[in-house]
Design goal:
By secondary structure, the protein is an all-alpha fold. The chain contains 18 helices and no strands. Helix 4 packs antiparallel against helix 15 and helix 7 packs parallel to helix 17.
C-alpha cells in the first residue's frame, strides 16, 4: 500500500468525525435549537448512564478472555505513560507561559488526558471497513478494534476521573491572587505557624479585671478545665488515627466518580468474558442468553454518533471567543499533536523490540493512536462542574479538534505504515 492509499484510509474516518461534529454545531445554533443546553444535558446523561456502558460492556464481553487480558497487559501502562508525559509537558507549558491559576488545571488536564473513548470508537471501526486496510478481515478487525477501543475507554475513564479530576479541582479552588507571604504580613498579624487554629480551643470571655479573688480562682479553674479537655481529645489511640486517615483518603479519592457507569459496564464485560460459565451463557449464536448481549451491543452502537453530536454542540461555545493566550493554544497543540505522538512511536518501537507486545498490528496501532488524540471532552465537564475556565476550555477544544482533522490523518497514516 503506497503512501497515498494510507493517507486516504486514514482520512476517511477523520472526515466522518468532522462531518458529524459539524452536524452537532449546526443543531446547537440558536435558530435551529435542537441541541440547546437542556437537550445536550439530557443526551449527555443518556450517553453517560446508558449508551456508553452498554457499548463498553458488550464489546469487552465479546472479545476479552483471561488469555487476552494477559496479552493486553501493556495497554493500562501505555495509557498511564501518556498521562505522565502529558502532565510533565503541561507543567512546563504553565511555567513558560505563566498562565493564570484558573487555567492551570485545564491546561494540565488538556495535555494529560486524551479522548480515549469517542475518537477511537469512531476511528478504528472506520479504518477496518476501508478497502486495503492492513488489519485483515473487516468483521474480525471491527470486533477486535471495538474491544481495544472499549478497553481504552475504560482505562482512560479511570485515569481521567481519579487523576485529572483532582488536578482540575485543586487548581479551580485556588484564587488568582496569591495569599500574602509570611514576610509580607503587617505587624501584629499571626504567622502561618501561629494561627488560632493551631492554638488550644479554649472558651475565652472578655478580658475584664476580676476584683474578688474567689471569682478569679474559679475563673482560672474553668479556663484550665476547658483547655485540658481538647488536649485529652487530641490524644487518640493509634488505630483511631489510622482509621481517620484512611477515611480522609477514601473521601478525597471520590470513589463515586471513580466507579462511573462506564467503569461498571467494563467490569460487567470483564466478568462475562473471563468467567467461562457466563461466556457460554451470553456469547455466541447458540448461547441461551445471547439476545441480551446482542441487545446491549445494538443499544451501545448509538453512543458513537451521539457523543460526536454532543462534542460538536459543545464546540459552538468556543466560537464565541475568549481571552486565551496564543502561546497556551500553541503549546497544547504542540504537546498533543507533535511531542506526544513522537514519544509514543519511540516507546512502542522499543516495546516491540523487547517483546512486550504481541504481534497484532491493530493492537499496536491502538497503542500508538492513544498518544495522538485531542484532549478529552470530559475536561470540559470538569471545568463546568467547578465553574473555572469553562469558556477557555471551549476555545481550547475548538482549536484542538479543528486541527485534529489534519493531525489524526497524518499520524494515522504514519502509524498504519509503522505497524504493517
Amino acid at each position: 500500500m503506497d503512501i497515498w492509499k494510507l493517507f486516504f484510509v486514514a482520512l476517511m474516518p477523520v472526515l466522518k468525525v468532522l462531518l458529524l461534529t459539524a452536524v452537532g454545531v449546526f443543531l446547537a445554533i440558536e435558530r435551529v435549537g435542537i441541541l440547546g443546553a437542556d437537550a445536550r444535558n439530557h443526551l449527555n446523561n443518556l450517553v453517560f448512564y446508558v449508551l456508553s456502558p452498554a457499548l463498553v460492556g458488550s464489546s469487552l464481553a465479546k472479545f476479552v478472555t483471561l488469555r487476552s487480558l494477559l496479552e493486553l497487559w501493556f495497554m493500562p501502562l501505555n495509557v498511564l505513560i501518556t498521562f505522565i508525559i502529558g502532565s510533565v509537558l503541561g507543567w512546563l507549558l504553565i511555567k513558560i507561559t505563566k498562565a493564570p491559576k484558573r487555567m492551570r488545571g485545564m491546561i494540565l488536564g488538556s495535555c494529560a488526558g486524551g479522548n480515549l473513548g469517542a475518537i477511537p470508537l469512531i476511528l478504528i471501526p472506520a479504518v477496518c471497513k476501508e478497502k486495503g486496510s492492513p488489519f485483515g478481515d473487516s468483521n474480525s478487525c471491527n470486533t477486535r478494534g471495538l474491544a481495544y477501543a472499549s478497553l481504552s475507554m475504560a482505562i482512560g475513564s479511570i485515569y481521567l476521573w481519579s487523576y485529572v479530576y483532582h488536578i482540575v479541582r485543586v487548581y479551580s479552588s485556588s484564587k488568582d491572587s496569591d495569599e500574602p507571604k509570611l514576610d509580607e504580613l503587617p505587624e501584629g498579624t499571626e504567622s502561618a505557624g501561629e494561627t488560632t487554629e493551631n492554638l488550644p480551643k479554649c472558651r475565652t470571655g472578655p478580658l475584664l479585671p476580676l476584683k474578688e479573688p474567689s471569682l478569679e480562682e474559679g475563673h482560672m479553674e474553668r479556663l484550665e478545665l476547658d483547655c485540658v479537655v481538647p488536649q485529652e481529645k487530641a490524644k487518640e489511640p493509634f488505630p483511631s488515627n489510622v482509621k481517620q486517615g484512611f477515611q480522609k483518603v477514601i473521601k478525597k479519592l471520590n470513589l463515586r466518580r471513580l466507579f462511573s457507569p462506564i467503569i461498571n459496564g467494563a467490569i460487567v464485560g470483564f466478568i462475562i468474558g473471563v468467567v467461562p460459565t457466563f461466556q457460554k451463557a451470553f456469547i455466541g449464536d447458540n448461547a441461551p442468553l445471547h439476545v441480551l448481549e446482542d441487545s446491549a451491543y445494538f443499544l451501545g452502537e448509538a453512543a458513537i454518533p451521539s457523543v460526536t453530536l454532543i462534542m460538536g454542540a459543545n464546540l459552538l461555545e468556543g466560537l464565541k471567543g475568549s481571552k486565551v493566550p496564543l502561546m497556551v493554544i500553541i503549546g497544547i497543540v504542540a504537546v498533543r499533536y507533535i511531542i506526544l505522538p513522537i514519544s509514543g512511536a519511540l516507546i512502542i518501537k522499543y516495546a516491540i523490540r523487547f517483546g512486550l507486545l504481541h504481534s497484532d498490528p491493530l493492537y499496536q496501532f491502538v497503542l500508538l493512536l492513544q498518544f495522538a488524540l485531542p484532549p478529552a471532552i470530559g475536561i470540559g465537564t470538569m471545568t463546568q462542574l467547578f465553574g473555572a475556565g469553562q469558556t477557555e476550555c471551549s476555545v481550547i477544544m475548538l482549536y484542538t479538534y479543528s486541527l485534529a482533522t489534519i493531525s489524526l490523518t497524518l499520524w494515522s497514516a504514519f502509524f498504519i505504515w509503522f505497524v504493517r
